[in-house]
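DNA-methyltransferase
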Amino acid sequence: MAPITDEQVERVRALVAQIPYGRVSTYGDLAEAADLSSPRIVGWIMRTDSIDLPWHRVIGVSGRPAPHLRATQLEALRAEGVVITDGRVQMSTARHRPPSPP
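Structure:
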């Protein structure tokens, strides 16, 4: 992976902070909006610099959380009213797509 700049980290952090209560965005949605080459960059940023953000609102496009986050993430999303069926976020109703870069 190419070096990640402070500017990229701050763009992703700002986008995550703007995900509305009761909604989710995907790693891919955030990567596109932050003009990054890969959703994996968003994943790396979330792993290393998201403790003060609503990290639970970022999920894979399948709507399933990572296994190690599953219980905590789904509990937090349920508390916000996100519809979850069979351990998967109902993306058709919960997905928030941040605006793409100009």
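The domain at 6-94 is CATH 1.10.10.10 (Arc Repressor Mutant, subunit A).
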